[in-house]
Amino acid sequence: MTPLRLSIASADYDHFRDFRTGDVRAEGIDHNWSTLRHHEVFARFTANREWDVAELSFAKFVAQVTRDNADIIGLPVVCSRLFRFSSFYINKNSGIKTIEDLKGKRIGSPEWAHSAAVYMRGWMHNDCGVKLQDVHWYQAGANAPGRVEKVELNLPEGVEITRISDKSLSDLIATGEIDCAIIARPPTCFLEGHPDVVRLFPDYLAMEEQYYEKTKVWPIMHIMVMQNHILEDNPWVARNLLNAFDQSKERSIERLLDPAVSRYPLAWLPTYARKMQATFGKDPYPFGIEENRATWEQMLLYTYQQGIAHKHVTPEDIFPKGIMTNVVV
Is residue 329 in some structural domain? Predict the structure, then answer.
């Protein structure tokens, strides 16, 4: 059988490396892999569907997969996952000391369908009593002006967003024009030591460990997705891709756990990786549906509540049917 030729695009993740370089192969598939910054992949795939398989923001994916007659489907392959209590940055002059103090404040994020912000807005709304309608929301580029929303929104009643095109969130938080920014990467003003800009939760690591222990949710930022017509013409392709991604990830974790072969020149990193195994299990970075059910379900709820998803769906609705079929030998 002639191998199926697929175009794939993602950022340069170590857990994808062996698949990308060909050290791991997907049965029946040859690929042409574009390694780009993830924002470029998101924009080009969302606008033009330039690849057969691509990395996509989880929130932006949900916006597209829940449309009527959606043309893409997800793979339960995690590109990026991070806890986000570290992502709240405040101007000290705002008087914010606790999460409840965010009521009535001005909060910005790079986009409304920004996965890091979706998780934290959902936590505020569902767990902290700070409802979506309690906040004055702003949207601007993170560290440079001009960023725009990439998917259509249907904002909940009572929620409005002020869009700023000529200033960045870093500018706005430094001058006090907004009180708080929820942002995936630290704003430039924070990194440069602006005296008025600090994290709301300096003890975020302990908060995140406690949150995971309570909920078993480990927030997923980006996943791999594919165009529907590929799966329709080749029903076997989704599972074969998942197998290859999984094997590549396992090899990456083996390197991380073995100090003799780790590619990262950092002291104690394998020791820290073993601590992660103690927290998350033998596979500290699981792919799959059931392995991540609490996280999939939480994001699907939050995106629906926030007017990003067009309907409230289940994990089984966003992944190919039968992709997790177990084969007993």
Answer: no
Q: Which pLDDT band, with edges at 50, 70 and 90, does 327 fall under? A: low
CA gap 144, 169 in Å, rounded: 8
The total of structural domains in the chain comes to: 2
pLDDT at 245 over 60: yes
Does residue 263 carry a pLDDT above 90?
A: no
Same domain (yes/no): 203, 285 = no
Condensed to tens digits (0 to 9), the pLDDT of residues 5-64 reads 999 999 999 999 999 999 999 999 999 999 999 999 999 999 999 999 999 999 999 999
Q: Which residues contact 203 (CB under 8 A, 6 or more apart)?
A: none
Predicted pLDDT of residue 15 = 96
Mean pLDDT of 108-126: 98
Of the pLDDT bands very low, low, confident and very high (cuts 50, 70, 90), residue 87 is: very high
Domain boundary among 215, 232, 251: 215
CB atoms within 10 A of CB 197: 23
Q: Are residues 235 and 302 in the same domain?
A: yes
SS3 call for 185: coil
Domain end residue (candidates: 215, 232, 259) = 215
For 326, residues 6+ apart whose C-beta sits below 8 A from its C-beta are none
Please report, for the domain that includes residue 224, its CATH number. Answer: 3.40.190.10
Q: Provide the edge-to-edge strand list for the sheet that holds 106-109.
A: 161-163, 136-139, 106-109, 180-182, 88-91, 197-199
φ, ψ of residue 222 in degrees (nearest 5) = -130, 145
Range of the domain at 310: 4-82+219-318
Specify whether 89 is located in the same domain as 209: yes
Question: Structure tokens of 57?
Answer: 């923001």
Q: Are strands 72-81 and 220-227 parallel, antiparallel or unpaired?
A: antiparallel
